[in-house]
Design a protein that fits this description.
Length: about 475
């Protein structure tokens, strides 16, 4: 029997559509994409700490946090990236929990949900300035040696705190990016900051946000702020243009960045940042919540799983990972960003199965799925209907209940522009937002609150302290 004009397609029709690579029609949810109407930097002032590829806007998370959770509820993102969901949740009085397998993402998430105080950050910055003044000549000499002979000059490890324990070489492209004095200050700060200390971690994360970009507030103008250009491109560009970075003072740049970050007070609630595989998030989240005497069940998940074969978080952040002492190649080897469609769907199914034990009975799960739909007007094989496939092959088999699908196409186009440059104009892309219930009561809750009016004033009024 064929489906009538107002009916969902039958299983047989659906199977036919799958074979033809056509997207299934899933029911739309009555949820207005008001986040598109908000200003670009809507939300807490910690959000723009550092750019992160394929991150979603804070306003998008607010649309779901405000509707589907209350102050004191636990809100989880198992693929937290730069921490948008957990930070926004904490800023709205929820307990934001973020998890990511990428140590750079974990650092950003942790810095936002367990931030330094402004006083501690400022005091530490003053201490760093003094430390630098006392020993600037040593670091300057080291930076000059690095620039003259990057392959053969050893520097101390990130976080080692010891200028004399030198056992690392500096990639040539790092040396190319900075003025000698800026590099000297960065070598000093990189050696001094300990990422297991909350205040130092916050400062390190803030520096990643000003490391490169095309204005005077960045420490190198060699690359845009959004991502690191390919090392080969950097070498060729620097040679072709005789690039010499202007002198930028790391401490002044960091002081200005801290002023911007602390334009608003830190969120009223501390969250949790976990470093691990999304498939195993339930146990880690539950232990951490229990350890802090918080509710152990998650009321809302808002997440955007890795894009299908688009982003390499290590490679596109190699200058930031160098500064932090992380291995960009090792990051890309562990993340699940390179899957073809079928293993990707199996991966998502495992993630959704793994989430179950930590979800409240009426939990709502919001999945923002990046769909590369068409390229130059033609449908891409395998890129079509990923959200629909995610429902069919990952969520439905794990017992989730579908409340509906919302669209987010404008923001997605902006993301692709960043990634693909001029090619972006030729590709169209739509993010589809799957809104699921963990059970039937979650689905009913998702449907009944979808059209609630929510407050878009920021900072929020009447936030209840807990
Ligand atoms: C689309 S991004 C999420 C961006 C995030 N919504 C934000 O606003 O920043 C997907 C994230 O999944 C992470 N990731 C990839 N494989 C993972 C895995 N197996 N477990 C946990 N995180 C993973 C990547 O490091 C990346 O941060």
């Amino acid at each position: 029997m064929s489906a009538g004009p107002n009916r969902a397609p039958s299983r047989a029709a659906a199977a036919g559509q799958l074979a033809l690579e056509l997207p299934l029609e899933l029911p739309a949810i009555d949820l207005e994409p008001e986040w598109k109407a908000q200003q670009r930097l809507w939300g807490h002032s910690f959000h723009p700490m550092c750019s992160y590829l394929a991150s979603f806007p804070a306003a998008l998370t607010h649309a779901f946090i405000a509707r589907y959770s209350r102050p004191g509820d636990v809100v989880l993102d198992p693929f937290s990236g730069r921490g948008t969901t957990p930070l926004q949740a904490c800023a709205e009085g929820r307990i934001g929990v973020g998890n990511d397998l990428n140590p750079f993402a974990h650092l950003l998430t942790a810095s936002k949900v367990q931030p330094a105080t402004q006083a501690a950050a400022t005091t530490r910055l003053t201490g760093l300035r003094l430390g630098w003044s006392a020993d600037a000549s040593t670091w300057l000499a080291m930076a000059l040696r690095v620039m003259a002979d990057p392959g053969d000059t050893l520097i101390p490890r990130a976080g080692s705190g010891d200028a004399t324990a030198t056992d690392e070489v500096v990639p040539k492209e790092v040396a190319l990016a900075f003025h000698p004095e800026t590099l000297a200050q960065l070598l000093f700060v990189r050696t001094s900051l300990r990422l297991d200390d909350r205040t130092d971690r916050f400062l390190a994360a803030a520096i990643t946000g000003i490391l490169h970009g095309k204005s005077a507030s960045y420490l190198s103008e060699l690359m845009p702020n959004t991502f690191s250009m390919a090392p080969r491109y950097v070498r060729e560009f620097a040679a072709r243009t005789s690039f010499a970075s202007p002198r930028r003072d790391v401490f002044d740049g960091l002081a200005a960045k801290l002023d911007r970050l602390f334009r608003q007070p830190p969120p009223p609630i501390e969250g949790i940042a976990l470093l691990g595989d999304a498939r195993d998030v339930a146990a880690g989240a539950r232990d951490a919540l229990r350890g802090r005497g918080r509710p152990e069940r998650v009321r809302l998940v808002v997440t955007s799983p890795p894009y299908l074969r688009v982003v390499k978080y290590g490679y596109y952040n190699w200058l930031r990972t160098w500064f932090l002492g992380f291995d960009a190649r090792a990051i890309d080897a562990t993340l699940d960003d390179a899957h073809h469609r079928e293993p990707y769907l199996a991966f998502l199914r495992d993630v959704l199965a793994g989430l179950r034990p930590v979800l409240a009975d009426d939990a709502v799960v919001v999945l923002v799925i990046g769909d590369v739909e068409t390229d130059r007007g033609r449908r891409i094989k395998g890129g079509v209907g990923l959200a629909e496939r995610t429902w069919e092959q990952a969520a439905e088999p794990e017992g989730y209940r579908l409340a509906g699908v919302a669209l987010d196409d404008v923001a997605a186009l902006r993301k692709m522009t960043k990634l693909w440059g001029s090619e972006a104009g030729r590709a169209t892309k739509t993010d589809r937002i799957l809104v699921l219930g963990a059970t039937e009561s979650g689905r009913r809750r998702a449907l009944s609150s979808a059209s609630l009016d929510i407050d878009w004033a920021w900072p929020p009024r009447n936030l209840r302290a807990i």
